[in-house]
Amino acid sequence: MSKLASEDFLEQLHAATANALLKKIESGDATAADIAAAAKFLKDNGISRLLDKSLNDEGEAVTGNIPDPNDDPGDFENVVSLYQ
């Protein structure tokens, strides 16, 4: 029976995998399969909420529609524009 890999070895392998994926993507040489592998790697490590546009920064579901102030500016008379 074979021995299980040590926790230190697995951590090194995890870091090496992440670094290899990152380098490939940053180099511009990543294929669609590489991007898919990176997305799966992130999801498998609990990072998928950052990629899910239906979740906010805290990982909470975003519900409803965010109104566009340009549609009916009268509804936003008490709002100070950040772009004045």
Mean pLDDT: 76
Q: Compute the separation of the termini in Å.
A: 70 Å
- CA-atom Rg in angstroms: 21 Å
Residue runs with pLDDT of under 50 for 5 or more positions: none
Q: What is the beta-strand fraction? A: under 5%
Helix content: 40-55%
Q: Please tell me the total number of domains.
A: 1
Describe the largest sheet. Answer: none
Overall, the morphology is elongated
Query: How many helix segments?
Result: 2
Oligomer: single chain
The counted number of beta strands is 0
| Sequence of secondary-structure elements | HH
- Structural class determined from secondary elements: mainly alpha
Characterization of this structure:
The chain is an all-alpha fold. It has one domain (about 5-75). It is about 40% helix and about 0% strand. α1 (about 5-25) packs antiparallel against α2 (about 30-45). The protein is elongated, with a radius of gyration of 21 Å.
Give the topology.
Blueprint lengths: L6 H21 L4 H13 L40
Give descriptors for this structure.
84 residues, single chain, 2 helices, mainly alpha, elongated
In summary, what is this structure?
By secondary structure, the chain is mainly α. Helix content is 40%, strand content 0%. The chain has one domain (7-76).
